[in-house]
Specification:
single chain; 465 residues; alpha/beta; Rossmann fold; Serine Threonine Protein Phosphatase 5, Tetratricopeptide repeat; DNA Cyclobutane Dipyrimidine Photolyase, subunit A, domain 3; five-stranded parallel β-sheet; globular
């Protein structure tokens, strides 16, 4: 049987894997390979939390392959050179993979495909990460969408879920390859075990992804439309890291939920999948946005220059604003933060402190297990008012009012800011209105003054020149 390289990237699963399915349908024996080449990601090499997750996901994928008679062959880049060497060593007739959409990766993959084909190798990329390819959803004029609602309306008109693909029961044993290293030799584990709390919350790998979907469909989907905004509840899917690493296909999630009731909660969640699609759509069509404002009006905005102390207080949950501190501590402890709270901490940084959104985007990139370039960029530019279909900059989230609305008993605050747990629920939202417990900081900024400064800066770019 002729063989082919199955090049794994952020598609760390066997079920619903279009590259694997295409390879098997072509009658080729897969040689599963993973190539570690973080320097090929441009300015956005994976962060520390992503690396910690990837380590465990690669182990899980290797175990799944070994259970079927195969194994994952792990190598260091540069990618094209490694693939060319493997083709020569194995006599592989083809290289199959699933697409990624980060700008540097797209450019790298296009060059790899061109070079392989020039050498007579059948190089094929597949759609394995999205419900819609970024170039499939266009306006009537043939332009990319910049606003979510018409994007999603058009996407739904093209709604066609791929058929589910089962995990093969057996796969052929691959040959020994030159240059193979152990997964644990990739240097993905943090030097200090600051991530140890993550794994009480998460199970990386395909089995963990399917278990998370089961939990969501069974326990959290009913009431999702309202509960998703309550950070003290497990009211969200918590599927984002599994989707980011490709441990589950988005269409498997949609298949599982398509008949779920109530329909309103199902549609609320599918719309969140749509927002993820929109992020990749924007990243593909506007590849500069991870590093630059989508809206150039903000290029001259009067961002403040933060001090190290201000940034450190925000990063480590010592701002004196309880809901902000709770979110940042949840992030540090678990590698994840509730989405409503992400909006609150983002608004606080970019508006009350008037710090450029890039500072927040970089911190999230390093600390989130679901750090996804498309959605990290979309989220930060949305909350900062500088992005596509963004919340207007003058919409300044008041963190106290947000906490009172979405954490009315202060349960989320009490969990992550235990210094405040002994206060009456009403005072947990704004402890400075009474006696602040010893050891908890005073606010780093007066909320009213911070809001006024943000609006004054906004007025500055509106002024005629």
């Amino acid at each position: 049987m002729e063989c082919a390289l199955l090049w794994f990237r952020n598609d760390l699963r066997l079920a619903d894997n279009p590259a694997l399915d295409g390879l098997l349908r072509a009658g080729l024996a897969p040689i599963p390979v993973y190539i570690h080449a973080p320097d090929e990601h441009g300015g956005w090499a994976p962060g520390a939390a992503s690396d910690a997750w990837r380590l465990r996901s690669l182990r899980a994928l290797d175990a799944d392959l070994r259970a079927r008679g195969s194994r994952l062959q792990v190598l260091h880049g540069p990618t094209h050179d490694v693939l060319a060497q493997l083709v020569a060593a194995t006599g592989a007739k083809a290289v199959y993979w699933n697409r990624r959409y980060e700008p540097a990766i797209e450019a790298r993959d296009a060059a790899v495909k061109q070079a392989l084909r020039a050498d007579g190798i059948d190089a094929r990329s597949h759609s394995g990460a999205l419900l819609f390819e970024p170039w499939q959803v266009q306006s009537l004029a043939g332009d990319p969408y910049k606003v979510f609602t018409p994007f999603w309306r058009t996407a739904l008109k093209q709604w066609r879920l791929p058929a589910l693909q089962a995990v093969p029961e057996r796969l052929p044993a691959p040959p020994a390859l030159p240059g193979v290293v152990a997964i644990d030799a990739l240097g993905l584990a943090p030097r200090l075990p600051w991530d140890r709390g993550f794994w009480d919350e998460w199970v990386p790998g395909e089995a963990g992804a399917h278990a998370a979907l089961d939990r969501f469909a069974t326990d959290a989907l009913d009431g999702y439309g309202g509960n998703r905004d309550i950070p003290s509840l497990r009211g969200t899917s918590r599927l984002s890291p599994h989707l980011h690493f490709g441990e589950i296909a988005p269409w498997r999630i949609a298949h599982r939920l398509q008949d779920a009731l109530p329909a309103s909660d199902r549609e609320h969640y599918l719309r969140e999948l749509g927002w993820r699609e929109f992020g990749h759509h924007l990243l593909h069509h506007f590849p500069h946005t991870p590093d630059a404002n989508f809206n150039p009006r903000f290029d001259d905005f009067g961002w403040a220059t933060p001090t190290d102390a201000q940034l450190d207080a925000w990063r480590h949950g010592r701002t004196g604003i309880p809901i902000v501190d709770a979110g940042m501590r949840e992030l540090w402890a678990t590698g994840w933060m509730h989405n409503r709270v992400r909006m609150i901490v983002g608004s606080f940084l970019t508006k009350h402190l008037r710090v450029h959104w890039a500072h927040g985007a970089r911190w999230f990139w390093d600390t989130l297990v679901d750090a996804d370039l498309a959605n990290n960029t979309l989220g930060w530019q949305w909350v900062a008012g500088t992005g596509a279909d963004a919340a207007p900059y003058h919409r300044v989230f008041n963190p106290v009012l947000q906490a009172q609305k979405f954490d009315p008993q202060g349960a989320y605050i009490a969990r992550w800011v235990p210094e405040l747990a002994g206060l009456p629920a009403a005072q947990r939202h704004a402890p400075w209105t009474g006696v602040t417990p010893r050891g908890y900081p005073r606010p780093v900024v007066d909320l009213a003054a911070g809001r006024a400064g943000a609006l004054a800066a906004l007025a500055g770019i509106r002024a005629p020149r």
